[in-house]
Amino acid sequence: MSTFKNIRGKAIKSLASDPSPVSNGDIWYNSTSQTLKGVVPVSAWSSGGNLGTGRRILGRAGVVSAGLAMGGVSPPGSPSNLTEEYNGTAWTGGGNMATAQHGLASDGTQTAAYAAGGADVPAPAVSQEYNGSSWTAGNNVQTARRYPVGTGTQTAGLIFGGVGSSATETYDGTNWTSVSSMNTARSEFAGAGTQTATVGFGAPTATEDWNGSSWTTGNNLTYSTYGNAGSGNQTDALSAGGPTGVSTTAIYDGTNWSSNPSLATGRSGAGGAGSSTTDSMVFGGNIPPNTTATEEFTATATTKTFTTS
Q1: Rounded CA gap, 222 and 134, in Å?
Q2: Do 130 and 183 have their domain in common?
Q3: Each residue of 88-97: pLDDT tens digit?
Q4: How far apart are CA 3 and CA 10, in angstroms?
Q5: Do 81 and 99 have their domain in common?
């Protein structure tokens, strides 16, 4: 029979009072109240400020307090060059993209972002850089592809996948360089992380981890999805939404995926931004029709008393 010590590598402490400070995963026995207690995360979605223009399959960058939305498809169905900036409360217009793009790879910060590739036919090889006020053209990617995924920063970026492609490229702020390909070609999926530590997930359930030189297969997502939004990092990533109407949310701890509270508004092709699951948001996408809705995800540590029934 397994014990808590066998599973977690340490015994449950017996304490006369609750410890302070505490962190997620802590567990103890309060001998005074004769109760077993532990710290568990409580997560939820809440409404943020609406985008000025509803768009789907749009680009993303930044964090909740300084987010960036670019490109996408807006009514009546044409690629958009719009850029909007988020301050944690409201979206405001930024400088227009040099080239309208949708289904693009992107990441970085609100004042230093990149965008590459896109969903046009034939697939574009163009890349662009944003400095917080305007976009300028960058060097072309090595492999033109539609619906790729991007992570990292403007001077240390990573793009991977796309329609019929497993190609991976790194970006140093000037040049794109081909590196080891993904194990499985795929498109319309999501990713989170840095140039040396990224996770790609979805299309439909596969997970792959990048360590800076190669991809390895990880545990599958808890739900089947395409067109999902992603945010966070390789050991604390969030996947939300997917095909039309899907509102499912899952969190990755670097090994396993776990189910979490669903989006209030299910959507496909939304943007996702944030550095972790405690700093994540989803914006735009298609319900249908296109939506302007922004939702912010929070996960807080709460002390819980465990009981039997």
Answers
A1: 39
A2: yes
A3: 999 999 999 9
A4: 10
A5: yes
For the chain, the residue count is 309
Which H/E stretch holds residue 71? Answer: none
User: What CATH number did the domain enclosing 68 receive?
Assistant: 2.120.10.80
Range of the domain at 38: 4-42+300-306
DSSP calls for 161-213: --TT---EEEE-SS-EEEEPPPSS---S-EEEE-SSSEEEE-SSS-EEEE-SS
CA distance 252 to 279: 14
Cβ(216)–Cβ(184) below 8 Å = no
- Shared domain for 132 and 217, answered yes or no, is yes
Query: Are 167 and 123 part of one and the same domain?
Result: yes
Residues 249 and 136 occupy one common structural domain: yes
Residue type, 132: G
Q: How far apart are CA 284 and CA 59, in angstroms?
A: 10
Q: Give yes or no for a contact between 129 and 135, defined as CB atoms under 8 angstroms apart.
A: yes
- Gyration radius (Cα) of the chain, Å: 20
Q: Which helix (H) or strand (E) segment is 22 a member of? A: none
Q: Are residues 20 and 54 in the same domain?
A: no
Residues of the chain with pLDDT under 70: 1-10, 24, 41, 301, 308-309
Six token digits for residue 120: 């046009």
Closest CA to 202 of 176, 231, 171: 231
Q: Determine the Cα–Cα distance for residues 229 and 189; give it in Å rounded to an integer.
A: 8
Name beta bridge partners: 156. Answer: none
Express each pLDDT in 72-112 by its tens digit: 999 888 999 999 999 999 999 999 999 999 999 999 999 99
Whether residue 218 is found in the same domain as residue 148? yes
Pairing relationship of beta strands 13-15 and 27-30 according to DSSP bridges: parallel
